[in-house]
Description:
There is one protein chain. The protein has helices at residues 2-30, 42-59, 64-80. The radius of gyration is 16 Å and the shape is flat. By secondary structure, it is mainly alpha-helical. It has one domain (2-80). α1 runs parallel beside α3 (64-80) and α2 (42-59) packs antiparallel against α3.
Amino acid sequence: MDGFSDFMSAALPWIAIALLLAIFFAREAGRKKDQDRREEYGSEGMALGMCLGVAVSTAAHVNVGIGMMAGMVLGLIIGSGIEKKSDKE
Length: 89
């Protein structure tokens, strides 16, 4: 059973990165390429999520890479759901 936990601790960041890239590219492919693109807080959410993930993983004595990756994914998901208000309105 020790080999499985070693494998999961090594493979989990790569799986999460692949999931993050899949979400990002699927979201970009679904957007229209015209001027009426919806502005979101995806990148800001990723940055804040990464900082929060590092802080939580350090406090919980978890691998910092896993905390950073989980924070980025959660930040992207939450930030993509919030639409920016435009100055034109």
